[in-house]
Every structure is written in structure tokens, then in C-alpha cells.
Amino acid sequence: MTFDPADHDVLIGLAVAFGIGLLIGVEREQRKREDPAHIVAGVRTFALIALTGAISTLLGTALIVLAAAFVALGALASYQRSREADPGLTTEVAMFVAFLLGVLAMSQRELAAGIGVGVALILALKSRLHAFTREVLTAQELHDGLLLIAAALIVLPLLPDRTVDAWHVFNPHQLWRLVVLVMAINALGYVAQRALGTRLGVPLSGFAGGFVSATATIGAMGSRAKLQPELRPSCVAASTLANVATIVQLSLVLAALSPPLLKLLAWPLIASGVTTLVFAGFSGFAAWRNRQDGIEPLKGRPFQPTQALVFVALVSTILLVAAVLAHWFGDAGALVAAGAAGFADAHAAAASVAQVFNAGQVGIDVAANGVLVGFATNTVSKSVVALGTGGRRFALHLLPGLIAMLVSFALVLLM
């Protein structure tokens, strides 16, 4: 008798379906223990429902339809029994979802398992979710959350992903993605502050945002500092930590594209990272010492859409200036290209230089200097964004760390 790999996949699918049913059923069983009159389905029922969905896929489409109708009738009977005491449909909907996940487990078991865990988590967090939506979440926060979702999922896909100007600078899709990114980072900082407090939440959100875009993070934190001046130390700490994330990600980009170039730039990157980390420590200590007693818990807007648009307008202006300079200098080489790319993103500058070096068009010393030029223009870009979004005081507090980061990189590279 030979082993058929398809039989192995079937067994795994059945096991995943059974596990999903058990997971959801255990949660419902716990809830049933607290309220036995209102929840009629428990661990055995849900395990059998999920298995029914999986087995029906082996018997054909007609059996799937028949089994689905049977589960729907069972859910309807459950609702008829409990609707007077509990008009909710959570258990009944969960029964049908368990059936569908059982069907899905036979063809896409990883996806089914992930969704099953998510369903069980949502069911288990009932009390906390109700408390959050009714007591914590404000109408303005809900409005802004929907605005962010619409900007990301409706507007962004509709915009053309190509440049629309003679200098090849203005890409509506990329620019609007920056708007979404700034709003998302600001919202992340807002949520982190609500959850962890100003001292920890804002700096941590800045570090996380730096892996996406340190410039966008600085713009978001500058907007927050301008809106709430008492949070300026925490916003400076968050912006400095975003620069630490920039150096880490810059190292990863070079490691992926050009290990020889990374080997040459290893010590400059380490020196720059350590220097920035020291400044982040000082700014973080200042934020920690900042008295929080008088700061009311945030209950306002997670982000200001107009401030996100101002930030993108600044970035667009910088890109336009860089493009005009590159046009004037013509094909001056990798240094001009790296400098122009650095105005938008340090990683883009490093990537462009690494690709030119890999193609053999420039030597490794020129490539290293190209990374330095991109680093320098990116620092200028961040400084302009900090001044434009956060004002003079925010920029002055952030500028020493930015300068020290650049100088330490340059000194170790040029030694």
C-alpha cells in the first residue's frame, strides 16, 4: 500500500478544522458557564460544526450546501430559544463562521487557522471591546478612524502610481501614501499614549514609525508637539528614536543589496547609531522627568488631516528643489543622484548607490561617499520638516541629535 500525499493534506485539514472548532467552542463553553441559559452551543457542538464543514468538502458541493443549511437551521433554533433573554446573535453567527472555517481549512488551512484564532479572540474580548467602544472611544476618534481607513483603502488605490510632471517628482499614489502614513503614525502615537501614557507610549510609537519613515515620524511628532506643547519632550524623544530606527534599517538595506559596501560602512553606521542612541537616551530621560500630572488623558483627535497635508506639501517642495538641481547638473554622477534621493529618504539614497556600485559603474569609495551625501541631504530634509511642522522650539531640541548623527557618520567614514 503506497502513501498518498493528498491523504496527508486531508488529515491535516481535518485536524485544523477540529482545532478551530475546539478553540471557538472552549471560549463559548467558558461563556456558557457564566450564562448557561443564553448560550446553547459549547465545545462539542462547535467542534462538530467545524468538522461538518471540513467533511462536506470531501463529499461535493451539494453536501456543502446541505450542511450549511443544516447549520443555519440549528443557529436559528438556538436564537429562537434564547432571544427573549438575550437578543444577541453572537453564538449563532459564530456557529456559521465555524462551519465556514471548517470548509476553508481543507484548502487554505493556514488562513483558516489564523481567522479562527482571531474569531476566538474577538469572542473572548467581549467585555473589554464593549467597554472600549462605549466608555473609551469617543465619537471624534471613531470619525477619524473611519477617515484614516477611507484614505488608505478607498482613495489610495484610486490614485495613479506614476509621475505626472516633467521632473518625474509628483507621484499622486506615493504622495497620498505619505499622507496616510503621517496620519497612521500620529494615530499610533495617540493610541500608545492612551494605552501606555506619555512617557512610554509616544517614544515607542516614534521608534516603530521610524522603520516606516523617520521623516514622516518627525513630521507627525512635530504636529503633535505643536498641538500639545506640554508633550514636546516626549515628541523629541520619539523623533530621535525614529532616527535610530533609520540607521538600523539603512544597515539592513545595505546588507541585502551590497554586503561589501556595508562592510566598509559598518563602523560609521555603528558610530552614528550609538551617538543617536545616546541623544535618544538624554531626550527620553528629559521626557521621563517631565511632569505628567497636569496632562489630561487624550480625548481629542488622533491626527489632524491638514497637518498631514502640510507635511506632504513640504516633502513635495523639497523633492521639486532636488529635481531642479539634478536637472541643472545633468549627469553629474552618483553623488548628485544620491543627494537628490536623500531629500526624500535615506534608504532610497543608499539603495540607489548600492545598485550603481553593484553594476560596476562607480567604485566603492564613491559609493560610500554617495551614502554620506544622501545621509546629509536627508538630515536637511528632516530639519526642514521638524521646523515646518513642530515650530522653532521643537526643531532646536531635535537638531543637535540630527547633527551629531550625521557628523559621527562622516568623521568615522573620512578618518
Question: Short summary of the structure?
Answer:
This protein is mostly helical. The chain is built from 15 helices and no strands.
Structural notes for this entry:
This protein is mostly helical and 415 residues long. It has two domains: 5-132, no CATH class; 138-414, no CATH class. Helices cover 83% and strands 0% of the residues. The protein contains 15 helices and no strands. It has helices at 5-34, 43-59, 61-82, 90-105, 109-124, 126-136, 139-158, 172-196, 198-227, 232-257, 259-289, 305-329, 334-344, 346-358, 364-414. Helix 1 runs antiparallel to helix 2, helix 1 packs parallel to helix 5 (109-124) and helix 2 (43-59) runs antiparallel to helix 3 (61-82). The longest helix is centred in the C-terminal third of the chain and has 51 residues, at 364-414. It starts with a helix and ends with a helix. The relative contact order is 0.08.
Radius of gyration over C-alpha positions, nearest whole angstrom? 27 Å
Structural class: mainly alpha
Taken as a percent bin, the fraction of beta residues is under 5%
Q: Low-confidence stretches at least 5 residues in length (pLDDT < 50)?
A: 293-299
**How many helices does DSSP assign?**
15
Sum up the structure in keywords.
415 residues, mainly alpha, 2 domains, 15 helices, 83% helix
Topology:
Elements lengths: L4 H30 L8 H17 L1 H22 L7 H16 L3 H16 L1 H11 L2 H20 L13 H25 L1 H30 L4 H26 L1 H31 L15 H25 L4 H11 L1 H13 L5 H51 L1
Helix pairs in contact: 1-2, 1-4, 1-5, 2-3, 2-4, 3-4, 4-5, 7-8, 8-9, 8-12, 9-10, 9-15, 10-11, 10-14, 10-15, 11-15, 12-13, 12-15, 13-14, 13-15, 14-15
